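FW: tagging you since you asked about this chain on Friday. Here's the raw sequence from the shared folder, copied in full. Didn't touch anything.
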Amino acid sequence: MKPGMTVLIPVLNEGDIIKANTERLLAYCRKLSQPFEIIIVSNGSTDQTNELGRKLGRDLDEIHFLEIPEKGVGRAFTIGVKQANFDRIISVDMDLSIDLGFINQALDLLQENHIVVGSKKMGSQNRTLWRMAGSRVFILTVRALIGLPFEDYSIAAKAYRREIIVRYLDRIDYGTSYVLDIIYHALSDGGRAIEVPVYCEDFRPSKFNLFNEALYRFYNVFRLWWNYHLRSSAARHDNQR
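HL: got it, structure written out here
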């Protein structure tokens, strides 16, 4: 892969902000001394997102817009990774709720690490108490069941070497749990990850039913624990006997 960065953004019904925020992101990336592209993948959008995204792709050389009819942010992420031209992948949300300084910081840290985890809890966050409380319970569950020490498994503010993602594309969940999947498998195979604080301001209503999303996320933690962590622990125990 060519050295440089692919900023990857899965989107769903972001017609109100896709043009202005893409232009803001593009202006920031152009200031970095780095070859780059921005890949936007619409998954199941039914508003103006696809029309506006296609126009951005036609008008701006650095923008690549893709669309799929099915919803699934993990599916959109996987397609974006396959289309990426550069060796480092930076994932952000279309609302740009995370401080864009994370991008430059992550590029530096990826020289020595396979994954950079941007953590709202370690940094500063302006979000609803309900969402912060739910995230805390989820983080504690991940720590207890599969032993990961990080404080944030959300989609935004995550950076990866592309080589580490492609190893596990067949194990990535098609929903929002794909971040947890990548981190778990990479660290289980000896990969290096570092967590850094980020600032987040996000009071927009969630695009997901929060109750259903919580059930789904917890189910996937148990899935990882059952399918991989428990079996791996049992295999290590057998080898020590």
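FW: The chain has one domain: 2-240.
HL: agreed, and The two ends are 43 Å apart (CA to CA).
FW: great, closing this out.
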